[in-house]
Structure formats: structure tokens, C-alpha cells
Write a structure and sequence with these properties.
The protein is mainly alpha-helical. It has eleven helices and no strands. Helix 1 packs across helix 3, helix 2 packs antiparallel against helix 3 and helix 8 crosses helix 9. It is globular, with a radius of gyration of 29 Å.
Length: 388
């Protein structure tokens, strides 16, 4: 009898594990492939939500037709986005052209003298051991040339792959953009019908859940924007202080540019500081090169520490939970997952805390209560698990 009960428990346990494994796999597959397919429509819905306040302003204050107000607000939003993106592209092209045109003078004025100084220092070092510089070059030359050749080959291959990827992705980008714009127009024109369809075909509980999810999404996005603005300011400060310490001219301006690059998860401050530091080391400016690399390490450590704490505090999740969501999201879904998974977790947490859904108990004992001993072991005297 005892054996049968034990086997029954094992059976229930295995069924539960299999259920959650299948559910998580379906969620992962849906997010992995469904998001990429439905992304134009998500973008269109997000654009409509962002433009709604201005559309309401046109209808309430200027008495515009609701559909006309929605179209006008969308056109204004698209015009702003187009102007911002065009300005960024023009700036990058102009700066890139200046950088490319300055490469020859940079090589002859900085890199070549640095290489000569390195060879002179190496020759002096070799003479101290009774070895000629030619012998040293003969020993290490083939290895250095082989390493440089492999590095150049891999760098060229990566550059070609990157450029090819951008070129091949342009048609898909234009198609998705066109689909998003068309979807925006259709959503605005049929917004009342969409709302009526949802109300007529969903229960009151589902409609209420959708309403709360919409409100929670807007609040979470706003909190995210505020959090990353704070992180952006902190990044400017730490970059400027680090550059000031190593004696760089115009530390605030350069720190601002590095902070702007650091905002993008795919890029990060390492795309500026690491090559810059390596070039300084190679050209003989050892102090600045080491300082830039140390600055990068400090920035990465501080970013990993403060980002989960700031975001978690703003959106109401523990820093460790926020960090796990960011890492898992980045590993599974790339840059989209880095932001999307924590946002989804924050929305679910907010809905659970408000009582719209019931997935887990949210008995949260603050650090102040622990320190003062005000939180007793019973914690949640309420039957619903809330500690109001």
C-alpha cells in the first residue's frame, strides 16, 4: 500500500513536471517565432497607444472627428520618428566620413610613430640580454605576423558579414515598416469595432483583465523610461569622471557620447572604450590605454549592479528577479528579450499584486520591517495573501 502511494506521488510529480515543461516550451516557441512574425502589428498597436493622448486632445478641444484625429496624430508621430531617425543617420554618415578621411593622417601621425617607439623599446630591451633586435624579430616575427593575419582575416570576414546582413535585411525592414504603417491606419479606423468585438465576445473578467493589463503596460513603460534615464545620467557622470582622471580633454562631451552608445544593449560602452584603449596601448600611450580599459571594467561592474536595483525598485520587483529576467531574456531572445522579458514579468507581477490574476502569493516584507522587528512570522493574516 505504501509503495502504491509512493508511486502515485511520483506519477503526479512527473505529470506536473511534464505539464510545465510543455507549457514553457510552447511559451518559448511562441515568443521566439511568434513575436518576429507579429512584430509589425505589435509596433502598430504601440504607435496607436502612444498617439492616443494627442488624438483625444484633438477630439476634445478642437472637436475633430475621432478617426481623423487618430490619423493626424499617427502622421505627426511618424513624422517625428522619421525626422529623428534621419537626423541620426545623417549624423552617423557625416561622422563616419570624417573618421574614414582622417584614418591616413591618424596612421602616419600616431600609429606609425607608436610602432617605431615600440620597436625601439623592444630593441633596447633585447640589448640588455645580449641579444640583437634582429634575433628577437626572427623569433617572434612569424608568430606576430600570423596572429595579425588571422585577426585581419577574421575582422574582414565579420565586417563583410555585418554589411551583408544589413544589406539583406533592408528589404525585410522596409516590408515590415510598410505593414506596420498599414496596420496603424486599419487599427485607428476600426478601433471602435475592435473594442466592441472584444466586449461582445469576452467575459467581464477578461475585459477587466485587458483593461488592467493596458494600464499596467503604460505604467511599466513609463517607469522603464524613467529608470533608464537615471542610468543614462549615472553613465554620463561615471564616464566623465573616469575620463577626467586619465586626463582626457573634453571629458563631459566624450562621456555623453559613450553614454549614448551604452544605451543600446547590442553596442555598449565597450565598442568605444576597448578599441580606444587598445589603440592607445599600441601607440605607446600606456597610461591612457590602461586607464580606458580599467574605466570599461568599472562601468560594466557598476552597470550590472545598479541597473537591476534601479529598474527593480521602480517597477516593483526584486533586483535579483530583474537581473534573472534580463539575463534569460537576452540569452533566449537577444536585445528584445533584454527589455521584453523584464517588462512582461513586471506586468504579471503588477496584475498579480492588484488581484487581477492569482499566480503566486506576494507577501513582501520590507527591510525596514525586518530591522525594526515589526514583521511577525504570520506575515499575511489576510486570507488572500495581501499585506495591506
Amino acid at each position: 500500500m505504501e509503495t502504491d502511494k509512493r508511486l502515485e506521488r511520483y506519477k503526479r510529480f512527473l505529470i506536473t513536471v511534464a505539464f510545465w515543461a510543455v507549457l514553457l516550451f510552447l511559451i518559448y516557441a511562441g515568443m521566439k517565432y511568434g513575436i518576429s512574425l507579429l512584430m509589425p502589428f505589435f509596433i502598430a498597436a504601440l504607435a496607436v497607444v502612444i498617439s492616443r493622448p494627442f488624438a483625444h486632445l484633438l477630439t476634445d478641444r478642437l472637436h475633430f472627428n475621432r478617426k481623423l484625429a487618430g490619423i493626424i496624430s499617427l502622421l505627426i508621430l511618424l513624422a517625428i520618428l522619421f525626422a529623428v531617425i534621419t537626423g541620426i543617420i545623417n549624423y552617423l554618415i557625416s561622422r563616419g566620413g570624417k573618421i574614414v578621411s582622417s584614418i591616413p593622417s591618424f596612421y602616419y601621425n600616431t600609429v606609425q610613430p607608436g610602432i617605431q617607439n615600440t620597436f625601439d623599446a623592444l630593441s633596447e630591451w633585447a640589448s640588455g640580454f645580449g641579444t640583437s633586435f634582429d634575433d628577437v624579430i626572427e623569433m617572434i616575427g612569424p608568430h606576430v605576423l600570423s596572429s595579425l593575419g588571422s585577426f585581419v582575416s577574421s575582422l574582414s570576414g565579420k565586417a563583410i558579414t555585418f554589411i551583408s546582413g544589413i544589406a539583406s535585411g533592408i528589404p525585410s525592414f522596409l516590408l515590415n515598416t510598410l505593414i506596420s504603417i498599414i496596420a496603424m491606419v486599419f487599427i485607428v479606423l476600426d478601433l471602435d469595432r475592435i473594442k466592441s468585438f472584444v466586449k461582445n465576445n469576452a467575459s467581464e473578467r477578461t475585459v477587466e483583465l485587458i483593461r488592467k493589463a493596458k494600464t499596467s503596460f503604460g505604467e511599466v513603460i513609463l517607469k522603464y523610461i524613467k529608470s533608464y534615464f537615471i542610468i543614462f545620467l549615472i553613465s554620463i557622470i561615471e564616464n566623465s569622471i573616469g575620463l577626467l582622471i586619465i586626463g582626457q580633454k573634453q571629458p563631459f562631451l566624450i562621456g555623453l557620447m559613450i553614454a549614448i552608445v551604452d544605451v543600446f544593449p547590442i553596442l555598449g560602452s565597450g565598442t568605444v572604450l576597448i578599441p580606444w584603449g587598445i589603440i592607445c596601448l599600441f601607440t605607446g600611450d600606456i597610461k591612457k590605454g590602461i586607464g580606458l580599459l580599467v574605466l570599461y571594467v568599472v562601468i560594466v561592474i557598476l552597470r550590472q549592479v545598479i541597473e537591476p536595483r534601479i529598474i527593480g525598485k521602480r517597477i516593483g520587483m526584486r533586483p535579483i528577479v530583474t537581473l534573472v529576467c534580463m539575463i534569460v531574456g537576452a540569452k533566449l531572445f537577444g536585445g528584445i528579450g533584454l527589455l521584453g522579458v523584464p517588462i512582461a514579468a513586471a506586468i504579471i507581477t503588477d496584475l498579480n499584486r492588484s488581484g487581477a490574476i492569482h499566480l503566486f502569493n506576494d507577501d513582501d516584507i520590507t527591510e525596514e520591517e525586518k530591522d525594526t522587528g515589526e514583521a511577525d512570522d504570520s506575515g499575511s493574516g489576510n486570507d488572500d495573501g495581501n499585506t495591506e
